[in-house]
Write a structure and sequence with these properties.
Number of helices: 5
Radius of gyration: 25 Å
Helix content: 25-40%
Order of helices and strands: HHHHH
Distance between the termini: 75 Å
Shape: elongated
Strand content: under 5%
Structural class: mainly alpha
Largest sheet: none
Length: 88
């Protein structure tokens, strides 16, 4: 409890009047986009704390293709009959 009191004593009055907004975002070229629903609630200056995953997520080829499918001109997916047709 002592450390909490010491911490609270070290915070300035401006910090005591803050509130938190939480959202997930991707950093693009060093910029974090604030979702539209929060923009009107924010003033010119904000305090930012970034919580980043310590482990990088590994994407396999299937995950990459599901996120960004390749566009191939003239491609037509197989029909159900073509998928299950088997020749031995």
């Amino acid at each position: 409890m002592f450390w909490l009191n010491a911490l609270a004593g070290s915070l300035d009055k401006e910090c005591m009047n803050m509130y938190a907004i939480e959202f997930q975002a991707k950093i693009k070229e060093g910029t974090i986009m604030v979702p539209l629903q929060y923009r009107d609630k924010l003033k010119e200056v904000v305090r930012v704390i970034i919580l980043a995953d310590t482990q990088e997520k590994t994407h396999n080829l299937i995950d990459q293709l599901l996120e960004s499918p390749l566009k191939v001109e003239g491609f037509q997916p197989l029909s159900r009959d073509e998928i299950y047709a088997r020749t031995l």
